[in-house]
Write a structure and sequence with these properties.
The complex is a heterodimer of chains A (292) and B (380).
Chain A (H helix, E strand, L loop, with lengths): L9 E5 L4 H13 L2 E6 L7 E2 L2 E4 L2 H8 L3 E4 L3 H14 L3 E4 L6 H14 L2 E3 L5 E4 L3 E4 L8 E8 L2 H13 L4 E6 L10 H10 L5 E7 L4 H12 L4 E6 L23 H10 L3 E3 L2 H15 L1
Parallel strand pairs in A: 1-2, 1-5, 2-4, 5-6, 6-7, 10-11, 10-12, 12-13, 13-14
Antiparallel strand pairs in A: 3-4, 8-9, 8-11
Helix pairs in contact in A: 3-4, 5-9, 6-7, 7-8
Chain B lengths: L1 E2 L1 H10 L7 E4 L2 H11 L3 E5 L12 E4 L2 H11 L3 E2 L2 E2 L3 E5 L3 E12 L4 E7 L6 H7 L5 E5 L7 H10 L4 H21 L1 E12 L4 E3 L3 E4 L8 H10 L3 H9 L2 E4 L4 E5 L2 H13 L6 E4 L6 H12 L6 E8 L4 H14 L6 E7 L2 H11 L4 E4 L2 H13 L1
Parallel strand pairs in B: 15-17, 17-18, 18-19
Antiparallel strand pairs in B: 1-13, 2-7, 3-4, 3-7, 5-6, 8-9, 8-11, 9-10, 11-12, 11-13, 14-16
The chains are: A alpha/beta (292), B alpha+beta (380).
Amino acid sequence: MAIVVNEETKLVISGLTGREGTFHGLRNRSYGTDVVAGVTPGKGGQDVEGIPVYDKVAEAIAERDANTSMIFVPARFAAAAITEAIDAGVHTVIAITEGIPVYVMLGVYWKARDAGVRLIGPNCPGVLSPGKSNVGIIPAHFFDPGAIGVVSKSGTLTYQIGNELKQAGTGNSSIVGIGGDPIVGSDFIDVLALFEEDDETELIVMVGEIGGDAEERAADFIAEQVSKPVVAYIAGFTAPPGKQMGHAGAIISGSSGTAEAKKEALEARGVRVGRSPTESAQLAVEAMRAIA
Amino acid sequence: MDLLEYQGKQLFAKHGVPVPDGRYADTVPAAVEAAEEVGYPCVIKAQVRIGKRGKAGGIKIANDFDEARSHAEAILGMEIRGFTVHEVWVERASRIDAEYYTSIILDRSEKKLLVMLSRMGGMDVEEMAETDPSGLIKRHIEPAEEFTAEAARQISIDARIDEDASDQVAELLVKLHDVALAEDATLIEINPLIVTSDRKVVALDSKMTIDNSALYRHEELSELRDRSAEDPQEQMAKEKGLTYVKLGGNIGILGNGAGLCMSTLDVVAQAGGKPANFLDAGGGSKADAIVAALEVITSDENVNAILFNIFGGITRCDEIAKGIIEASERIDLDVPLVVRLDGTNSEEGLRLLAEAELPDLHLEKTMLGAAERVVEIASG
């Protein structure tokens, strides 16, 4: 099974002809992802190492049965590209692009919800289901197939934890980077719900950080609707209030959004929270052994 | 980006939100001239990005020329909780009948704008929510709907705003919503929103946050941003295009990726150290980026050791190692460097660094080990 992307994923990449789009699109293909098309307005008819390029997403769907879209276009044009993919009829859109204005994303968020399209990102590393499909920029060699689902706001932290899980002999069903922007298409709870339903996933690792209250809401959701064990890590205990720590959404506003509050909310609902990425990976490995 | 009070008020004025007549000044003579122009009594207000300025002595009323001068002298250059006052806003004093509170913020959880209004202004919103939760009216704006004058009037009525001011407040809410969308403001707070003795509703304060990702469509605001960093390292980092936040400790930190970098600060603090900064070197960290980052970190004279925490994903650790070696040739590093390389090609990276035999370079394989090492070196 796995979640969001799998063997059935047929990927169309908006922005395939750009430098980053080409680099990662070809990496995804060499991993085994079925990259069926690229889209760049005005470049229809060309190809990128055998991947046909179309002017419109709708053509890629009609000609190549694409069902999932990845967005690699610059921030100013990304919202239009997401909207185009939603209108054309893919069921999933994964937006890698960083720097889309918040109010532009607000409109896109509701459009995706109303259309019933799953949107991951923006400003995210993508989704990897080891052994099946990789859509985005996650370096797949840190992850083996297995039973641990990972959902994270941060790319490099996820790789760090994934690598430790792999060294401990465990693997992953899917790794979902939800992104570090204030408004993202899928929050922790959306992905937790998918992992709860997924046959391959036996344990979930959640990697959060300061800002907003997605972790607190996830804590409530876990208590009420997740039967599988969840282990968490939260970054940003030393972050001062009012300062944006790299990610647009990573900011403590007044007294809300602190790492301490998130950790407390999770622990109050029985979720174990590691003090470092290493400790969280160890907790996950212990929990996996307890299941087996 | 957080705007100063006067910058927010200028945006208010642009969109027809009533504000008192005021002038900007950054020297004592200019402040006195501003006071003479707006007339007495006037208020001289320190412009800093921190709350409770009044209690710190940063807001003073001047009744004549001499008071204007002595207040301006006292306020310009003063320190308010770590922020030096470089600018003041001189404003005609208002006669206040009532103080309200209002804000429009982006509610990240609900993915909607949230309007709040209360007739108890002057205290902070958390306090308000505790003192009288029913008095603080909160209403979301539905994404598919317009924010109408009628909806705004209902909020005003529900908040029990004085009858003769109610329509003015409602009109102001609609205009604030326009400001939020037009200026890409994800937070606008007016506290207090006053009713003057001649029953006019006026924004006496302004707190506003602009979405950094939207600055490309607000040229005049981008210019403000360039002047907004007060700290010399933050200014330098901005010029070099690096994401840097000063934290005040003695251990310089460089990581790749925002999440890993935040985590590095936490782990160093757990090991008993005090991080000097947050610095995300980003994805493809080549020599130029590493040189730039080291220049910024070492320009902070408190720094006496640096931790380089890299987990190579797409970025290859051997490339990072080459970057560090090249950087050490290009700049004069006089503080010890602890380097942790893990992930893609880390063996090769560590080998290159070991062979280069750089002075005062300490190699570590794990993040925790590196954190402990750098704390030990920095405190030794």
